[in-house]
Amino acid sequence: MAHVFRTRDRNGKHHPKWRFQYTDWQGKRHTKTGTGSKRETERLAQREEGYHEEIRRGFRPPPKQSDTTAHRSFGSIIDEYLAWGNSQGGRKGRPWSKGHSRMQRARLTWWKDHLRPKSLLSLEKCLPLVEKALRGLQVNGASGKTLNEYGGVLRSFCNWCIDRDYMENEPLKKLKRFDSTPKEVRRAVTAEEMMRLLEVAPEYRRIVYETAFCSGLRAKELKSLTVHDLDVRRGGLCLHAEWTKNRVAGFQPLPSVVVQHLAEFAATGQAKAMYRRQFIRAGSKPDHLGDPLLYVPTNPSRTLKTDLKAAGIPVRTEEGKIDFHALRVAFVSFVVETGTDLKTAQSLARHTTPELTMNVYARVRGSRLTEVAEAVGRIILPLTSTKEAQRNLGGSASHFFPIPCQHHPGASIPAASTIFPRM
């Protein structure tokens, strides 16, 4: 039977609203707040208990989990989502990284402050409010990529709620993506620029640039390497799933000269000493509990900019800008330029799809295009066109056809090494 009662405050005065207790269809006792009228509160209690009595007798279907959780506070659901992510929300059931967890918490808190939902039920028709909030970020100068990330965080949270039957429908199903075309693209550092950079960089930064240029490892991955990850016998670096971006363990081969330089630098213990001095100055706890292989500055792109200026290399050109991640772009570009097969290039870049390797990272040098165009012309153009070009340019035929060609008597084609120079 439903029970109606009133509570008292600390001063012994009755609370202005009546409360009632009832038993649900599972036999659990619940307490709810009614109104200031006892008779109206009794009707609410009888209606609630009658509803559950019909479920108990089979006249009504049991309520869905989304009906029971729809009125839970938005903050409590966020806490549950973050706890799940920090436990097993990453790829292959691994926990989120610290940076990803921090980003998820910050952006969900931002959505909580802007949408002000009292419960999950408030998110059912939140699409107009979400679009308005994102437009506000866009007016303030946020890029399309940032806007998509903000929307993706909330969409992932809603999908997680749907998987657990906390929500029935996806409220952001019709949320359109913003144009994420970068305003400024990265360009690949050339081999000549890399040599100039290595000449002016200090030893501890030179070894970082060498490793990044010859492995394609990202700055955070380089910072996570320890002395034990260097395998001199196999000639490369052991990668761990805990800190790689794709959360997959692997082995990254390196040129033998870079392996030798890494072994010599690791023997000095310079990286650990530099980290110790850095964190003593900052008064914080060091991230490296073991023996770091390299010392990676807090802002590697800013440090790289200083070395580029010392080497006389422009940071920005018509082809794009150079930052630390441009070293990875250069690595992937040179891997592709060697003429290797696509699967090998994708494996060395540690990409999930070949499209990411070829369409996002790989760059083509303008001089490379000219070389190939000249090579094609030497093969397919008839000898008469060559003689005509000779008269117009005042050159000799041997300039165009240095090697005898069996297809055209007296003509020649360039050697393969001149078209595809070895790295």
Describe the overall structure.
The chain has 423 residues and is mainly α. The chain has four domains: 61 residues, no CATH class; 95 residues; 171 residues, hpI Integrase, Chain A, CATH 1.10.443.10; 54 residues, no CATH class. It has 19 helices and eight strands. The chain has a three-stranded antiparallel beta sheet with strand order 1-2-3, covered by helices on one side. The longest helix has 20 residues.
Comma- or semicolon-separated keywords:
disordered C terminus, 6% strand, elongated, three-stranded antiparallel β-sheet, hpI Integrase, Chain A, 423 residues, mainly alpha, 19 helices
Topology:
Blueprint: E1 3-5, E2 19-23, E3 29-33, H1 38-57, H2 65-69, H3 74-88, H4 98-115, H5 127-139, H6 144-163, H7 191-200, H8 203-215, H9 219-224, E4 230-231, E5 236-239, E6 250-253, H10 256-268, H11 270-282, H12 300-311, E7 316-317, E8 320-321, H13 326-337, H14 342-349, H15 354-361, H16 366-380, H17 383-393, H18 397-400, H19 416-419
Antiparallel strand pairs: 1-2, 2-3, 4-5, 5-6, 7-8
Helix pairs in contact: 3-4, 5-6, 7-8, 7-12, 8-10, 8-13, 13-14, 14-15
